[in-house]
UniProtKB/TrEMBL annotation:
InterPro entries: NDP_pyrophosphatase, NUDIX_hydrolase-like_dom_sf, NUDIX_hydrolase_dom. Its EC number is 3.6.1.45. Hydrolyzes UDP-glucose to glucose 1-phosphate and UMP and ADP-ribose to ribose 5-phosphate and AMP. The physiological substrate is probably UDP-glucose. Poor activity on other substrates such as ADP-glucose, CDP-glucose, GDP-glucose and GDP-mannose. Keywords: Cytoplasm, Hydrolase, Magnesium. Belongs to the Nudix hydrolase family. This is Uridine diphosphate glucose pyrophosphatase NUDT14.
Length: 198
């Protein structure tokens, strides 16, 4: 494409739009997020620690490392989320399915609050993600969650206490998505002031 008189070439990847859900458990005053292994994050860490592995990028195979990085360097904290790949379902219905599959809470569509939508992966995909908020209680939990192992999902459900949430959001030693940081800040501005004082 031409831009300011210069011909440019840019790679992009077609992908699905997605939903993400900020889940707040009112029974225990904590956020419910997920942890999972992300190969792309692992490979970025691998390149940072062992740049020699990527010196011959044209090759299909990588140099075998004597001392590979532990898999934990590729694990990130994320909001419960999922791709929009069911045309017969609304975004809200897909979000509710994801909350049940990944975190084990059965949430009615009417309990979802749409926060906003935004572009994600603007350098590569440009897809749209829609962010929702929902409150759950311990009584709404019907399973352990964890995703679908048959689909290759290996998800750990994690609870972040409300009082620790902003420290968690800015702790760079805990890899997380921007969605976690943004949604925690949104909560502090929109929900926290209305909570009963202890």
């Amino acid at each position: 494409f031409p831009q300011n008189g210069t011909k440019k070439v840019w790679d992009f990847m077609r992908t699905h739009d997605s939903v993400s859900i900020l889940i707040f458990n009112t029974s225990r005053q904590c956020f419910v997020v997920v942890k999972q292994f992300r190969p792309a994050v692992y490979m970025c860490e691998l390149e940072r620690h062992h740049p020699q592995v990527f010196q011959n990028q044209d090759k299909e195979t990588f140099t075998r490392l004597e001392d590979p990085l532990p898999a934990v360097v590729g694990v990130t904290y994320e909001l419960c989320a999922g791709i929009v790949d069911k045309p017969d379902l609304s975004l809200e219905e897909i979000a509710c399915e994801e909350v049940l599959e990944e975190c084990g809470y059965r949430v009615p569509v009417t309990d979802l609050r749409r926060i906003t939508s935004y572009r994600s992966g603007v350098g590569v995909t440009g897809s749209t993600q829609t962010l929702f908020y929902t409150e759950v209680t311990d009584q709404m939990r019907t399973s352990e969650g964890g995703g679908h192992p048959a689909e290759g999902e290996l998800i750990e459900v994690v609870e972040i206490p409300l009082e620790d949430s902003m420290k968690f959001a800015y702790d760079e030693t805990l890899p997380k998505t921007m969605g976690v940081i943004f949604s925690f800040m949104w909560f502090q501005n929109n929900i926290a002031p209305k909570l009963p004082k202890k």
